[in-house]
Amino acid sequence: MHSNDTIRLSTLSNKTGSHSRTPSLDSQINGSSTPTRDVSHHNIRDLPPDFNNIDDGYDHDHDDSDEEYPDKMSLRAATDSHSGMPLLEKDDDRERSRPRRLDALDAVESRSTSVLPPPVVSASSANAGRPPLFPRSSTARSRSPDVTTHAAARKKYVLAAIFLVVCLVSFVLQAELGRYVQHELGWNKAYCMLYLTHGSWVLLWPAQLLILRWRSREIPWATFWRRHVALLRSTAHMVAEQRLDVPRHLTQHSPAPYIARTTAVITSCLTIAGLTWYIAVNMTSPGNLTAIYNCSAFFAYAFSVPLLKEKLRLDKSLAVLVAIVGVLVVAYGDSSDPDHALDAATRLLGNLIIGAGSVLYGLYEVLYKRYACPPDGVDATRGVVFANTFGSCIGLFTVLVLWIPLPILHILGWETFEFPAANTALYLWISVIMNATFAGSFLVLISLTSPVLSSVAALLTIFIVAVADWLLTGEALSFAALAGGAMIVVAFLVLSWSTWREMTEEEDKQKTAYREAPVDWDSDEAED
């Protein structure tokens, strides 16, 4: 009985073996036959080099055992009715998550000239011992929108706080040094100082480039430079179009003409606003000069409504008004009206001039935010890099163009040009560097927050300068200085809270839009 079963099994094995080893047309002509494994591996070995290195996903341990026992392999091929079908299911979910290497191998096998069925592949053996081509973190919902938006907002807040501190400290140093150069050392050249301070902004981009290069010193210079230029170019396109997703056909054009025009307009507005201070300084009282010029925070808010489409909010409006009242208290609280030396017509003209400067300075801040800052949603670091780069553009325009009034003023005798003494030049140079630091920090602050918040933050310097004068000269702070400074601080805190609430509401809108957006399961983009 045992021998009969053996004979039957042998006969069945021979029959199935004859089917599984059916020779191809070439083998019939040449009088040779090729086993299944030999044909399959022969086809794979003839693939291009890229496919030769692909992990085919087969279980080679089973292949080796099949070579040792060909009859067992033939019997399995004959008895399995699904041996010619892949065991990986063809439904949508499994097909989308299928590794590309298996897809490429399937495509190659479909083009194979072999008429034999493919070897049996198990799902477990196909993926055994091989890491997936794409990690799980590459899925469309791998990172929570709450975590992403919260991290971006926190980064923006931290950078804004850092640059606010730098802005305040550098402005106080620049103001004290500038006053010392003009009044104590006697080098009172209004337009020349304006030209030097604004021209020093050209150093912002080189200084930033050195810092970035030091942080990425392990990267070759050519690679670092190419990435830096690409970042600036792409950000400039975003600024020009005021959108994050710039169409490809628009990126083929250089953004340099737009940046040049924007730089010319914004720099002219800034220069005229700064020049009004020096013109009106001898035409009106210091109280009027300080109070009217710092009303630029109100005009920044007024221009933000039509240009930036900012909504009128009661808390922000009250904060701006309280800040301006605080400036008036500081300017007029303890003054004994020294305007008696000036006639009414001169004083009125000086107030009008400095008033125009206040309007232009508020307009400068809003124009910069509207036409020279990246749109909302851009990474905070990218915004910082571009803000300093645009500051250098302002400095470059000043150096190349705004030197023209210097010889004109000298010829007319309105401001005689002369080089400062060595000691004066040293303090002047430090003052200029501090002004460049303040300018870069202020531009970054506007880019990260808003012109209104930045303007009110700049008003804090009035109180800080008063404290610095008290520490340097020993003159006690007056009640008006303390009261007005307290009002400015309270207004800044209220405005900061209002701005934070607006940014939080915007984050909530982005989260809602992210959750309601359709899921792109076919996306292969991996997130870091």
Keywords:
about 525 residues, mainly alpha
Explain what the structure shows.
This protein is an all-alpha fold. It folds into two domains: about 35-130, no CATH class; about 160-515, no CATH class. It has 24 helices and no strands. α11 (about 190-200) runs antiparallel to α15 (about 255-280), α16 (about 285-295) runs parallel beside α19 (about 345-370) and α18 (about 315-330) packs parallel to α23. Mean pLDDT is about 75; it is low at about 1-140 and about 520-528.
How is this structure best summarized?
This protein has helices at 2-20, 25-30, 36-45, 49-52, 60-68, 70-79, 92-96, 100-110, 123-127, 145-184, 190-199, 204-215, 221-241, 248-251, 256-280, 286-293, 296-307, 314-332, 344-371, 380-401, 405-412, 422-448, 451-473, 479-516. It is 71% helix and 0% strand.
- Unreliable residue runs: 1-142, 520-528
Q: From the helix content, strand content and strand pairing, which structural class follows?
A: mainly alpha
Summarize the biggest pleated sheet: none
Helix content: over 70%
Q: Approximately what portion of the residues adopt beta-strand conformation?
A: under 5%
Number of domains: 2
**How many beta-strand segments?**
0
Tell me, rounded to a whole number, the average pLDDT: 73
Task: State the order of secondary-structure elements, H for helix, E for strand.
Answer: HHHHHHHHHHHHHHHHHHHHHHHH
Based on Cα principal axes, name the global outline: globular
Count of individual helical segments: 24
Radius of gyration: 37 Å
Cα distance spanning the termini: 68 Å
